[in-house]
Amino acid sequence: MDTPSPHRPEEPSTSGGDDSTQVVSLYAAQQKIYPRSVQGLFAKWRWGLVFLTQIIFYGLPWLEWGQRQAVLFDLGARRFYIFSIVLYPQDFIYLTGLLVISALSLFLFTAVAGRLWCGYACPQTVYTEIFLWFEHKFEGDRSARMRLDAAPFGLNKFLRKGGKHLAWIAFALWTGFTFVGYFAPIRQLGGDFIAGQVSAWGVFWVLFYSFATYGNAGFMREQVCKYMCPYARFQSAMFDRDTLIVTYDEERGEPRGARSKKADLSTLNLGACVDCSLCVQVCPTGIDIRKGLQYECIGCGACADVCDTVMDKMGYARGLVKYSTQNAMVNKWDAKQTWRRVMRPRVLVYTAILWIIIIAVFASLLMRKPFKVDIVRDRATLARIVSGGNIENVYRLQFMNAAETALDFKLSVEGIQGLQVVTDDAIKVPATESRWVTVRLQMPYDAAAPGTHEIHFNIHSSDAQGQDVGQLSEKSMFLVPR
């Protein structure tokens, strides 16, 4: 049975003759987990999400939108392209909104049905499933893999192990290349690799993410879920007795024991559990669900699938291991009563807050202007008197065009009588580009008292056809020296 071995006991030290000194092992040795392949409803859902997530992940960087990559987070140019949306670092608020939506979604899904994310869509789970598939193809199912590992090293073992690792490495390299392709144009990146002209940083990040995929999915596997992932530690704060979890019907299953298909359970005084241990063998984290809810459980439902298969073979009713709630098991609720309690006030509040934030973020995105202007005072020249007796302040304006077409900007200023723009007030910015422009403002010497005065830059934008795109007003200060 693939369950973690117990902690090693304390052993007295034999060195130095001091009988009071003891050596304590701080490492709990663990046996390797060999998950058995399983078929069933939840396995189909799991593989369906594997295909869906990977089609999106590997295919999205290759999509084109106009003349550019559809999804590209160009850190060098400090622009993020998401289909028709172009975001600048000044749009960081949208990233904050996305993180809040992700966190609330996680809280909601956990309150409803436990670790759904971990069991079906987490990259660690997804890539572990893929790497296990490669392992199954090269080494066979659980028993064959165990025999191969126990066998002495030979040609057969070398070919099977070597082929598996070559497949793992190739898949990990493609994964690392794809991930970097979200931050650098993937077609250009691929061409640079083929031509041998890729930068050292490009090679480093591809190898870094490839190694992370290879190590996490190929070797660490359940250790990441059990010891490294913080979600396993604080999930209990989001669980309650009405959360759907993978549960074992102890009242129906106990006492467990082996028997023939034709045996009379009432005569043998046995429950429905035949003690086959298949639920342990299919578990990717190696736990026994019959011991109750454990933090290592990722809620994948593999044990429920294999248990249903055994119940079918024995001619018993399904559902000895199933998704249910603690209250439903105790009170023997049917599905309708269970779901009525699942949709409790806590879940409804999470849902309402989540939808409000989603609507607010997307409404803000839809109503945002396709350009931004940042105003920075020239620190080298705060204020000065120029020829003609005028007072001049110098500013630097950054025009950021988030539209897919070039924009023309017309600049004006107000706030002080006689204040005017003395530099070129017409600025052209190419599509999805930004441009810094130095702007000088002048006013008559006696138009305002000494000190700082609030002024407003008014920016009017239009496209190449002269159609109005929008207007913007940005506040700044004009300094009048004493």
- Structurally, the number of domains stands at 2
The gyration radius over C-alpha positions equals 32 Å
Chain oligomer state:
single chain
Bulk shape: elongated
List segments where confidence is low: pLDDT < 50 over at least 5 consecutive residues. 1-16
Q: Summarize the main sheet.
A: 5 strands, antiparallel
Number of helical segments? 17
The portion of residues forming beta strands comes to 15-25%
Q: In total, how many beta strands?
A: 18
Classify the helix fraction into a percent range: 40-55%
First CA to last CA: what distance? 87 Å
Mean pLDDT, as a whole number?
A: 87
SS-based class: alpha+beta
Question: Mind explaining what this structure looks like?
Answer:
- The chain is built from 17 helices and 18 strands.
- It has 482 residues and is an alpha+beta fold.
- 23% of the residues are buried.
- Strand 5 (71-74) and strand 6 form a beta hairpin.
- Residues 1-16 have low confidence and may be disordered.
- It has helices at residues 41-59, 92-113, 116-121, 123-139, 142-150, 155-180, 186-195, 200-220, 222-228, 231-234, 250-253, 265-268, 278-281, 302-314, 326-331, 335-342, 345-367; strands at residues 11-12, 22-23, 64-65, 68-69, 71-74, 79-82, 85-87, 245-248, 321-324, 371-377, 384-385, 391-401, 407-414, 420-421, 426-429, 434-443, 451-463, 468-480.
- Strands 10, 11, 12, 14 and 16 form a 5-stranded antiparallel β-sheet that branches. A 4-stranded antiparallel β-sheet has the order 15-13-17-18, with no helix packed on it. A 3-stranded antiparallel β-sheet has the order 5-6-7, with no helix packed on it.
- Helix 1 crosses helix 4 (123-139), helix 4 (123-139) packs antiparallel against helix 6 and helix 4 packs across helix 8 (200-220).
- The protein has 2 domains: 32-368, no CATH class; 371-480, Immunoglobulins (Immunoglobulin-like, Sandwich).
- The longest helix has 26 residues, at 155-180.
